[in-house]
Design goal:
By secondary structure, the chain is α+β, with helices and mostly antiparallel strands. It is built from 11 helices and 9 strands.
Length: about 325
């Protein structure tokens, strides 16, 4: 049996794998913010992965039928490529690695399990975009705080009859292989022993409903994000390329800018600041004199902010100060 599992721990999701595909303990662990794997799956370009999956299918078929070692090497390379695209594909990689090891030990190449992998590979190009559509519909009807409200439990109960969705475009839940075990010192959690990509999607969606976690589209980047903190949050904290600001930081700056632009005290201060800063280039004032003035101006602004002086008095000070 091959080894791969997934669990949630507070605001994180953890994937553990046996990288060699042999039965035992996991030797690879990947951590992501809660729900990141599902949300990034929604952004997956299926047109990019389809030809890779088709190549793996063709080469796996040749390998199990003819023991073609070149085909096996192609499978390994392509699976590595899928790994770099999305964490969900690591499961397929581990399963194939397990079978590569097991078939030589057990002398059972072209077994029912090999045929099962081949069947999964054949179906994935059609299943992946279907899963994306079903997840999107689940967001709209159950998890999206702006369209479905703040009670995922109530919305799920409304849109499902037992385990069957009333809307045929909704994700359909099935029994999944869950365990319950220690995952960290002093902490136990439900653990998913995934048998396929569908299991991981299922586990993520049901976990949101169980924990009453909603999602929303970020006001800055437009991507979905889980509302694990304030339900009023409009900007996400999802991963961004190194060196870039997360959207929540950008949103905080935008709110600050808007607040300041509507503040007559700040506007008066900013107008005079810009005017005097231009004097430096014109040679009308030295750098030292400008920064000495700006320090005094900030102090006067603080007085105005605290109602120690009026706006008119602050404006008069700005006009007459030197």
């Amino acid at each position: 049996m091959w080894y791969a599992k997934m669990y949630f721990s507070e605001d994180r999701e953890i994937f553990q794998y046996d990288s060699l595909g042999t039965q035992g303990v996991p030797d690879v662990q990947k951590e992501f913010p809660f729900l990141e794997s599902l949300l990034s799956f929604q952004e997956l370009d299926c047109a990019e992965v389809t030809p890779i999956l088709q190549s793996i299918t063709d080469n796996w078929s040749r390998f199990i039928a003819e023991d073609d070692r070149d085909a096996l090497e192609n499978v390994r390379r392509k699976l590595g490529r899928l790994d770099s695209i999305h964490i969900y594909f690591r499961l397929l990689h581990v399963h194939c690695r397990y079978r590569q090891s097991a078939m030589y030990i057990q002398n059972d190449r072209d077994s029912a399990e090999d045929a099962q992998i081949l069947d999964e590979l054949h179906q994935l190009p059609e299943q992946l975009p279907l899963y994306q559509q079903q997840i999107q519909r689940f967001f709209e009807l159950v998890l999206d705080v702006d369209s479905a409200g703040r009670e995922p439990q109530a919305q799920a109960a409304k849109n499902y009859f037992h385990d069957s969705p009333k809307d045929p475009d909704l994700f359909c839940f099935h029994p999944i292989p869950l365990s319950f075990e220690p995952v960290e010192p002093g902490r136990c959690s439900p653990v998913l022993y995934s048998s396929g990509i569908r299991d991981m999607i299922d586990y993520s969606l049901r976990s949101c409903v169980e924990r009453n976690i909603t999602v929303r589209r970020c006001k800055n980047c437009g991507r979905w994000f889980p509302q694990t903190g304030r339900v009023s949050a409009e900007y996400c904290e999802r991963p961004v390329p190194r060196g870039e600001q997360v959207c929540r930081e950008i949103g905080a700056f935008k709110r600050w800018t808007k607040k300041q632009s509507d503040d007559p005290i700040f506007k008066a201060y900013r107008k005079e600041y810009k005017r005097r800063f231009a004097w430096i280039k014109a040679g009308r004032i030295t750098d030292e004199a400008f920064y000495a003035w700006s320090e005094k101006a900030r102090e006067e602004k603080k007085k105005c902010d605290r109602d120690i002086i009026s706006l008119a008095e602050f404006q008069q000070w700005l006009k007459e100060s030197k």
